[in-house]
Amino acid sequence: MTRDELLTTYPDIHVVTHPFVKHKLTSLRDKNTSTREFRMLVEELGTLIGYEATRDIETVDIEIETPLEKAMCPVLKGKKLCIVTIMRAGNGLAEGVLKLSPSARVGHVGLYRDPETKQPVEYYLKMPHSVNERTIIVVDPMLATGNSAIMAIDKMKEMGAKDIRFICLFAAPEGIEAFKEIHPDVAMYIGAIDQGLDENAYIRPGVGDAGDRIYGTR
Ligand code: URA
């Protein structure tokens, strides 16, 4: 499916087109952006896109006392959010989402790509309790084939999660299509939909290896 077909087929795919987001994504793409700046930008984008991804979470009115009078005012309802990072590149993005909700719980999913099957294999999974009662926000900067995100969300569903959202910075149309075929109920919040994947499953034009650029490795 093309970008436009995906967006018309799935109304819960949200591309965050705010000018600040666009500007920061361009800085990420630039190969001359330093590790320090790249890491900061990923975190800032986590906050900006996280803001959109949490626009509809529920609030409840409680009574408080201002210096002048009593008032009924809204606070977040229910159990704390849970941000789930797909390691390792997701960690940078998770830090940004945490700025919105510093008391959120954080789950970690570790996946590596089997060199023969090319499929993700789980090597680590640690989640808070009551996954079924929380809004779960899964984060990974790059949605390439979609395999890792699909598997991470499979795990969340096996653990009983019902309200799951996914955030990424760059997505390939192929990855979005694969993701939505398996998880049509999971809303996606995306910085930019790029042209597609190359023969090494890198997103083009993309940013290269996001984990390496966040951590200064190669
Ligand atoms: N992961 C990355 O870090 N970059 C890509 O382009 C694809 C997957």
Automatic annotation (TrEMBL):
- According to its UniProt record, the EC number is 2.4.2.9
**Which cofactors go with this protein?**
Mg(2+)
| Biological source species | Marinomonas algarum
Instruction: Report the GO terms under cellular component.
Output: cytoplasm
Q: In which pathway does it act?
A: Pyrimidine metabolism; UMP biosynthesis via salvage pathway; UMP from uracil: step 1/1
Residues binding uracil: 203, 208-210
Q: Which family does it belong to?
A: Belongs to the UPRTase family.
Cofactor binding annotation: Binds 1 Mg(2+) ion per subunit. The magnesium is bound as Mg-PRPP.
Phosphoribosyltransferase domain location is 15-217
Name it.
Answer: Uracil phosphoribosyltransferase
Gene designation per UniProt:
upp
Record key words, sorted = Allosteric enzyme, Glycosyltransferase, GTP-binding, Magnesium, Nucleotide-binding, Transferase
**What Gene3D superfamilies does the database record attribute to this sequence?**
3.40.50.2020
UniProt record, GO biological process: UMP salvage; uracil salvage
| Broad class of enzyme this protein falls into | transferase
Q: What reaction is this protein's catalytic activity?
A: UMP + diphosphate = 5-phospho-alpha-D-ribose 1-diphosphate + uracil
User: From the Swiss-Prot or TrEMBL record, what is one GO molecular function term?
Assistant: magnesium ion binding
- Function per UniProt: Catalyzes the conversion of uracil and 5-phospho-alpha-D-ribose 1-diphosphate (PRPP) to UMP and diphosphate.
Summarizing activity control, the record says: Allosterically activated by GTP.
Q: Where does 5-phospho-alpha-D-ribose 1-diphosphate bind?
A: 88, 113, 140-148, 209
